[in-house]
Structures are given as C-alpha cells and as structure tokens.
Amino acid sequence: MVVAGARELKDGETALAGVGLPQVSAIVAKYTHAPSINILLELGIVEPRPIHSPIGLGDPRIWYRCACMAGWLDVMGMALHRGVVDVGFLSGIQVDEYGNVNSTLIGTREKPVRYFHGTGGGANDIASLAKRFMIIMSHEKRRFPKHVDYNTSPGHIDGPDGRMKAGLRPGGPTKVITDLAILGFDEKTLKMKLLSVHPTVSVKDVIDNTGFDLIIPKEVPETTPPTVEEQRIVREIADLTGEFTGWKK
Description:
Elements (H helix, E strand, L loop, with lengths): L1 H6 L6 E4 L3 H10 L7 E4 L3 E2 L21 E2 L2 H10 L5 E4 L3 E2 L5 E2 L2 E3 L4 E4 L7 H7 L2 E5 L25 H4 L7 E5 L3 E5 L6 E6 L5 H6 L19 H11 L11
Helix pairs in contact: 2-7
C-alpha cells in the first residue's frame, strides 16, 4: 500500500499528507523517484525527515530535521486554500463509489453508532481544495458502501458535475489504494474502477469485499510488487519503527 501510494506521487509536486501511511508514502517517494517533492503536514511542518515514526501530528518526533516549522494557517491557508497543493493524501473509515470519504460517523446523526476523531484538522479542506487527492485504507465490504454514512471529505459527490454543483474546485479523488488493489475512477461516470490487484489477490476477492458494483475491465493486471530498495527505504527511513506498516511484526 505504501509503495503503491508513493509511486502515484510525481517529482516536483507539493503534497499534503496525513500522518500514517500517507506520510510514509510521501517519504518513500522522496527517497526514490521524486527527490524534489515538497511534503507538507497539516500542523505546519514543511519537509519532515523524522528518524522515528510519530504517532500523531503533535508528536515532536515529526518536527525533527524539518525544513520549516510553521503553523496550521501557513499550510492549510497560505498553501492549500491558495491552490498550490498538487495532491492531498487521505485515509478514512468509509469510501463510496464516487470517492466520498467518511472519517466522522458510523450510523446517522439521529441514530449514531459511533463517532470518530478522524476528521483531522483539514480532511475536508484537502479533499475540497487540493488539485487532486488519493485515499489509502484497508479493503472491507463494510468500509466500501454504496453511500458513506457521513461525507467528511467530498469526492466526486454524485457524478461528473457533483463538485461543480457544490461550488468546489475541479479535481477530486484519482486513486484509492487498499491492501487488495489499486482503484481509480471511470472518466465518464466517475464511478470507482478496478485498475490492478495485488499479488495473491483475485478480482473476485476485490468484488466480494466491495459493497457496490465496481467497474471491472476485461483484463485486470497485477500490481507491481515493491522492489528490494523500496522495502529498504520503508524499513530504514520512512517507517523505521514499523509504527504504521507493521513490518517489525
């Protein structure tokens, strides 16, 4: 998941990544094919280079060796709201067929089952204002419903003109990276589409773990596995303690 996410980031882009797998992906990209990528974190950190895996935005370990330690307003305001963020990288508890992300609530506001503290300081801002965004999360049927219980971070909303009708910038989600597959969005309908399955995973596995009808091409390739060098960077640099990838376990 981390390496697949890293490969979607382009050299020279400005990427706003959440703590966790998105941050690890961004650092892997910087140490492989995208040395000029500019990494931002919501807290105001520019170009983090931690030697230990932080457990949250407020963890001082994420500040170590960063190029600049500013504030929320600098990153979320002067960068994101001004439109200079090329790509946002989010996670969540649910994603639907149009790439809308829920990180707030399971159930309804009238009958909540559980609230989450996963909205962060700017998940909605990132989805609404970045030129594009990606989603990384585990692939389970309950996490891939036809409609999210609560739309924390708007994707394509309800179709091709959904973002325009909502008054949002063009863009929206481009990729969904899971532990089973890489998914994208159909150019015409903007519904989720299967792009590749990871090694040992079948198309049926993906279908069985998705709560809506995916667009399935006639031929679905296998995701290119991580190289030895990419794995080394994850383990020695990007996630040294294994906090997010769990490689030490």
